[in-house]
Amino acid sequence: MDIQLTSLHWVYVAFIAFILALLVRRRDTTLICVAGIFTLGLIATESLNGSVSGIFNSFIYATKELIGTIFIISIIVAMSRVLIITGVNETMVKPLTGFLRTPALAFWGIGIIMMVTSLFFWPSPGVALIGAVLLPVAMRVGLPALGAAMAMNLFGHGIALSGDYIIQGAPKLTADAAGLPVSRVMEASIPLVIVMGLVTTIVAFWMMRRDMKNGKWRDGLVGGTGTLSAGGSGATIALPHGTKRALAIIIPILFAIDVVAMFALDLQGGDATALIGGTAVLILISVTMLAHRNKGLEETTSYLIEGFQFGFRVFGPVIPIAAFFYLGDSAFKDLFGDHLLQGSHGIVNDLGVALANHVPMNGTVASVTLTATGAITGLDGSGFSGISLVGSIASMFSTAIGTGAATLTALGQVAAIWVGGGTLIPWALIPAAAICGVSPFELARRNLKPVLIGLAVTTIVAIFLV
User: Fold this and answer.
1) For residue 250, what are the contacts with CB-CB under 8 A and spacing of at least 6?
2) Beta-ladder partners of 221
3) Can you tell me the distance from the alpha carbon of 376 to that of 348, in angstroms, rounded to the nearest whole number?
4) How many other C-beta atoms can be found within 10 angstroms of the C-beta atom of residue 452?
5) Could you tell me the sign of the dihedral formed by the alpha carbons of 173, 178, 179, 181, in that order?
6) Where do the structural domains in the chain lie, given as residue ranges?
7) Looking at the predicted structure, is the pLDDT value of residue 242 above 80?
8) Staple partner for 115: which of 155, 223, 300, 380, CB 3.0–4.6 Å?
9) Which of 457, 425, 340 is nearest to 153 (CA)?
């Protein structure tokens, strides 16, 4: 089937190219995305009023699509905050410290604990939840602070965040942009996340041990260990030891029950997120009332405000970018009417069909391109701001080659999150670097080769899966 491309298609492609160019130069793309929305609206409606209104309406559309993700992350952060200042988090992980008896056990132990924690709490709050407790233990058995930062960073911001199987923020963004169910993208990402995680962490550990043995290791310390906490405050609230122990047992059990319920009731996407979010709200309220007693009503609101401030600070830059990329699919018709040619299935799908008709495309070219695109979109240090673009491009390429939509989408997601989510970009590494008291630039330097090797191997695996 031959698709006739219009000025709308070419303008969309031009803005994507412009956005990629800015990302390479590490410049912000929000203004360009807004300009893209305005231009597409002006061409489609031939009305200044319609195009200007379309900017705001596209923000509303994107916010409606993302609101569940924003809320779950905000609530998780709010809950994490009260667990930190009451010391419940310390009690939760303290029994695990007995297993960290050697540098190797400390590296892998901290990493695995961080990965599991990050699946439920997200990596940045996860760092605060476990870092302050496990770092002194790791250093006592001979693991350098920088090694502990690498473990927390690669397992949390890398493995856990790139899959995001519990909170499902990342796969929601990429799946929506690619026009796929979230479950398909999550299933396709499993082998890629496993390969990327194994290769990267094994290479990082081997290089760390090699450099320590050869005397080439640099600790990268910047003046002792940090004191990261969810709200930047060192305040603590004393709870009876028995109460903390009880909460430290009950909270993991509640989340474990949620996971069992997800499988038993076949809950996915928004339903699974709602279950985790509701559980987190109940935990937040219960712990706050126990800790603050008469002030519990007011403090519950304060924690929620802190959480929502964090959530919108993280996703504020994402909304206008996602708004532009949603126009590549169904959002265009909803916002600007049916101005595409008859037989069109959306700007992105039209481009994919045209690409298939005019460019020799195969799984190898598509996989390499998606990895490169994902890595480029991660250069802004967010990891999330560009994965809508990854989903759109994956949709185009899969249409062109006739297969592999979910695998290509997952590959781009993995590349974007590993690069921008907090393993390579120094300003995204600050949570792990701060709590370990090391330079984020030294941490980025240590992560560089392992992550690049991991991306190369993962791309090769994806080529065979497409």
Assistant:
1) none
2) 438
3) 20
4) 16
5) negative
6) 7-465
7) yes
8) 155
9) 425
